[in-house]
Amino acid sequence: MPKPVRKEVFPPARVRRYLEPGPIVLVSSHWQGRDNIMTLGWHMIMEFSPSLLACMISRGNHSHRMIRESGECVVNLPTTRLTDEVVGIGNCSGAGTDKFAAFGLTAEPASEVRAPLIGECHASFECRLHDDALVGKYDLFVFEVVKAHVAPSPRHPETLHYTGDGVFMVSGRIISRRPLFRPEML
Amino acid sequence: MPKPVRKEVFPPARVRRYLEPGPIVLVSSHWQGRDNIMTLGWHMIMEFSPSLLACMISRGNHSHRMIRESGECVVNLPTTRLTDEVVGIGNCSGAGTDKFAAFGLTAEPASEVRAPLIGECHASFECRLHDDALVGKYDLFVFEVVKAHVAPSPRHPETLHYTGDGVFMVSGRIISRRPLFRPEML
């Protein structure tokens, strides 16, 4: 059974480090006294500072209304230790299930939002709704990451990247090409 | 030196298979008689059908105007065979460089757009601008993938996933949890 992971405060302007590689995330929310979690693969960094993150949260998900009404969520980064939880959470609805209880996950208090952090995740990014201009047309939310928490090790956690059809790519080796970058591109 | 890869036509509704895991892509464009290429990490699948893809293309890039004016581009998927080209292309401007020539890449004709495919990439997705509502505010383009071309093998190409600081994560092993999915979630 995975255990909660100790995290440290991390600069919101640097969350691309964890999200730009394209991992599956678990989005936690809180509204009208209830918590929920959804599995999400469709997200994208949009800006460093303010730290903007776009997420496609389909209105078919129970979380859609919770996040739209509360204007908040937490984007949590699971590792392969949580593979079965990621799949299970993505295959049931928060309308009928308390997912924290059902999957044995720990809801920890956030500091800037009412949505909880998921203790067992490697990182948690507290988000506030920044722009809902495309929510009506595309279910596209633009969030600002207002506080970030990251476990100090491992430096490169083993993340899950969804390809559809029930199949995941797991993050592999790390390579640097730093000497080939212009300084202003780093 | 990488060589052009033979590709087959692929259903646009299934491009999430290649893009949802979050790889670095090479975006090719054509405007006023010139081709260009840029390296891009900020993209996101938005819908299966029509096949919608959001891309953040900063106005600081020469490609921004070419794509906005032509309303077209091709999103190409490079593998680790093209790592140095990916870095090189991301660290120079198309304003002063013919990047196809400079990096020894092959511009192949697309079928639905005037922007060229990059022959050496594993897959190429021809895109037409679908919605420019957020281009002015965020440089966010919403494209429709109108035609897709994918090399039939390998089934899981070794892709590059950028973490910032000149460091890439390379795609790793493949795992399936298909039996745990509800049929309608596949």
TrEMBL record, chains A, B:
Its cofactor is FMN. Residues 17-169 form the Flavin reductase like domain. It comes from the Bacteria. InterPro entries: Flavin_Rdtase-like_dom, Flavoredoxin, Split_barrel_FMN-bd. Keywords: Flavoprotein. GO terms for molecular function: FMN binding; oxidoreductase activity, acting on the CH-NH group of donors, NAD or NADP as acceptor. PANTHER family: FLAVOREDOXIN, FLAVOREDOXIN-RELATED-RELATED. Belongs to the flavoredoxin family. This is Flavin reductase. It comes from Roseomonas mucosa.
